[in-house]
Design brief:
Spore Coat Polysaccharide Biosynthesis Protein SpsA, Chain A, two-stranded antiparallel sheet, NTP_transferase_dom, alpha/beta, Nucleotide-diphossugar_trans, about 325 residues, nucleotidyltransferase, nine-stranded mixed beta sheet
Length: about 325
């Protein structure tokens, strides 16, 4: 397979087949991707990010009980008609917003064989074009256009590009971690120190054995040669096919054979909705920054924190 350098990227893949067991019982009948973050489901933020980066063709990898995802990004004619009759244009625009973001496609993963397998399910749709993968647990603030930068780097350097963050070394075992060296990539303002060459990747290394404290987060721009590698990748952690293992192979290849793999060290605003605590913090942070909600909500939050209610024993509901 030829290297995808300089080919236009237009397709995004969003794996959304997980069961969301960390949020039970809320996710017993509702996909975790549909849990609201303020007043939009988490998955809408991800599709908005893809669309803002110019990716107007979105493939969602789903599973059983994920029909609400399709409904959310479809037209709701009865609701729209009712809002139109009431003359409520503001709500009508909000309802239509999700169905106008991108051209949406869906395919079921079937067997839950991990992220690598989910990405492999996208091959018939993606074919031989480079593409982006966005994981729904990571929400990236639109003021920090990480994906657009990754697409630009992939266009110039070829191969694949992975988003990285610096984490506490004591927590590195919770992530996929990368060995890196300088890439000497020249951005608009000279050498961009946040663009690195990845030489190795390890999925959730044993405590104390991580190659670095640069952890992979849920944004990727991938060369289509990753599909060939994924087909040959044996199950790794938890018996799943790991995307990290396939990228490790590509990181050791030369241009023209699917390599190299570069990393972008992200230092912007990221909202982690992967567990209950981080999900709640994401809601508070985003609500505080909203022009329509922020002033009143921040005032209440300051009053609540200063009231001393948080100092006493926590009573169960």
């Amino acid at each position: 397979m030829t290297n995808a350098r300089s080919r236009q990227i237009s397709k995004a893949v969003i794996p959304a087949a997980g069961l969301g067991t960390r949020f039970l019982p809320a996710t017993k009948a509702t996909p975790k991707e549909m849990l609201p973050v303020v007043d939009k489901p988490a998955i809408q933020y991800v599709v908005e990010e893809a669309a803002s980066a110019g990716l107007t063709d979105v493939l969602m990898i789903t599973g059983r009980n994920k029909r609400p995802l399709e409904d959310h990004f479809d037209r709701a004619y009865e609701l729209e008609e009712q809002l139109a009759r009431k003359g409520d244009q503001a709500k009508l625009d909000r309802v239509r917003e999700s169905s106008e973001l991108a051209t949406m496609h869906y395919v079921r993963q079937g067997d839950p064989k991990g992220l690598g397998h989910a990405v492999l399910c996208a091959e018939p749709h993606v074919a031989d074009q480079p593409f982006a993968v966005l994981l729904g647990d990571d929400l990236i603030d639109p003021r920090d256009p990480l994906l657009a930068k990754m697409i630009e780097i992939q266009s110039e350097l070829g191969g694949s590009v992975v988003a990285l963050i610096e984490v506490d070394p004591a927590l590195a075992h919770l992530y996929g971690c990368a060995s890196v060296r300088p890439a000497e990539y020249h951005g608009p303002h000279g050498v961009d120190q946040d663009v690195v060459r990845i030489t190795d990747l390890v999925e959730k290394p044993a405590p104390g054995e991580a190659p670095s404290n640069f952890a992979v987060i849920g944004r990727y721009v991938l060369d289509p040669s990753v599909f060939d590698v994924l087909r040959e990748t044996e199950p790794g952690k938890n018996g799943e096919i790991q995307l990290t293992d396939a990228l490790r192979v590509l990181a050791q290849r030369t241009p023209g054979r699917g390599g190299p793999v570069h990393g972008v060290i992200f230092r912007g605003r990221r909202y982690d909705t992967g567990d209950k605590g981080d999900y709640l913090r994401a809601i508070v942070r985003l609500a505080c920054e909203r022009e329509d909600l922020g002033p009143e909500f921040r005032a209440w939050l300051k009053e609540f924190v200063g009231s001393g209610e948080l100092d006493g024993p926590i009573e169960p509901f």
